[in-house]
């Protein structure tokens, strides 16, 4: 059997590694280490706009309006990761973690690491240790909720009446991301962030994210969340001592847009409905949206939706009835979800080619 000859690149890499004895040596670009592995987000729309899911070993920033599902996506992604047998951790400077909520989303709070850091420096130290521990443990995700709540040590020691030092949080984030990225290998870091008004801008968009610009540069992906129109439904409510039928908000459309993604195509957009009654993203509306895009679901001129399943049975109804049918009928929902996921993966493969 002929011995495969080393390529020039492989020979040079081997020589460098032998000479310097580096902890992380030089690798060939064809090494499986550099292949992008993606994990599901728990949202069909998010999976589609992110190229099949979040890429492991990267930073993602989820930012935008309030009450649009940013934290939901983080915790739902971690819950799915736990189901695959992995460990996850949350850095929670907001002190907003709710164990019952996490359990509702399918996670196990007893297997989730949670830190309430007193200062941003404490959080960075923990995140670095988590990234290093991932070499031995199956630690897949670290969620940070949120960047805006980080307090630097200088700020924590100051009298609240004193004027803050300008840019302290931004400098801390710049140092933190350099150090975390250096030691990280395959751990996914999901950062939620809030927006502030940049008073120095007179023209253009005055909104900016907290923590300076370091995160937007280090992040492989940045996803913007914007509040859309309310989803309303007729219901009886008491008004001035009378029972009247009125429109009651039951959910809200959320527009998502990938403003940066170095692992796939940026600029992708999508929309989902966060259902206040279900306390999660409505799977029915997601399937309706993507089913229409993929040609799986048809919409007639009078506004009725229809789909013929694999057993040649036709399902149809108005928007609300069709969405309710998808939310209730698990078999029908699973069939359409499988087709939509296949289309998402196929679309990525065709784009790569």
3D architecture notes:
The protein is α/β, with parallel strands linked by helices and 353 residues long. The protein has two domains: 33-275, Rossmann fold (3-Layer(aba) Sandwich), CATH 3.40.50; 282-353, 2-Layer Sandwich (Rec A Protein, domain 2), CATH 3.30.250. The protein has eleven helices and 16 strands. The chain has helices spanning 8-20, 44-49, 70-83, 99-104, 120-133, 153-157, 168-183, 214-218, 283-293, 319-328, 330-352, and strands spanning 38-39, 54-55, 59-64, 87-91, 112-115, 139-145, 188-193, 195-197, 207-209, 221-239, 242-261, 269-275, 280-281, 298-299, 305-308, 314-317. It has a nine-stranded mixed beta sheet with strand order 5-4-6-7-3-10-11-12-13, sandwiched between helices. A hairpin with a 2-residue loop joins strand 10 (221-239) and strand 11 (242-261). Helix 9 (283-293) packs across helix 11 (330-352). The protein is globular. It starts with 7 loop residues before the first helix and ends with a helix.
What assembly state would you assign to the polypeptide chains in this entry?
single chain
Query: What is the number of domains?
Result: 2
Look at the structure and give the mean pLDDT. 92
CATH class of the largest domain: Alpha Beta
How big a fraction of the residues is strand?
Answer: 25-35%
Shape: globular
Structural class: alpha/beta
């Amino acid at each position: 059997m002929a011995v495969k000859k080393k390529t020039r690149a492989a020979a040079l890499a081997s020589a460098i590694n032998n000479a310097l004895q580096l902890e992380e040596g030089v690798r060939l670009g064809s090494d499986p280490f550099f292949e992008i592995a993606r994990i599901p987000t728990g949202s069909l729309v998010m999976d589609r706009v992110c190229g099949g899911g979040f890429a492991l070993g990267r930073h993602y920033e989820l930012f935008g309006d309030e009450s649009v599902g940013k934290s939901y996506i983080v915790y739902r992604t971690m819950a799915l990761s736990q189901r695959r047998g992995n460990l996850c951790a949350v850095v929670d400077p907001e002190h907003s973690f709710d164990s019952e909520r996490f359990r509702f989303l399918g996670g196990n709070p007893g297997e989730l690491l949670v830190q309430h850091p007193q200062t941003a420096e404490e959080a960075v130290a923990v995140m670095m240790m988590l990234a290093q521990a991932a070499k031995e443990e199956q630690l897949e995700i670290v969620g940070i909720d949120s960047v805006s709540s980080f307090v630097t040590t200088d700020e924590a020691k100051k009298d609240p009446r004193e004027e803050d030092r300008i840019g302290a949080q931004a400098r801390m984030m710049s140092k933190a991301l350099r150090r975390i990225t250096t030691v990280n290998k395959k751990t996914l870091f999901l950062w939620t962030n809030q927006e502030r008004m940049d008073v120095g801008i007179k023209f253009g968009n005055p909104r900016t994210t907290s923590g300076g610009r370091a995160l937007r540069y280090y992040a492989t992906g940045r996803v913007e969340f914007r509040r859309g129109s309310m989803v309303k439904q007729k219901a009886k409510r008491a008004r001035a001592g009378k029972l009247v039928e009125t429109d009651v908000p039951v959910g809200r459309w959320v527009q998502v847009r990938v403003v940066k993604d170095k692992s796939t195509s940026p600029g992708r957009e999508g929309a989902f409905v966060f259902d206040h009654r279900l306390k999660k993203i409505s799977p029915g509306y997601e399937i309706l949206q993507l089913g229409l895009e993929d040609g799986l679901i048809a919409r007639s001129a009078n506004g009725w939706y229809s789909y013929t399943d694999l057993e040649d049975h036709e399902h149809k109804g108005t928007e609300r009835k069709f969405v309710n049918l998808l939310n209730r009928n698990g078999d029908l929902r699973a069939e359409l979800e499988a087709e939509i996921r296949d289309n998402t993966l196929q679309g990525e493969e065709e784009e790569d080619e």
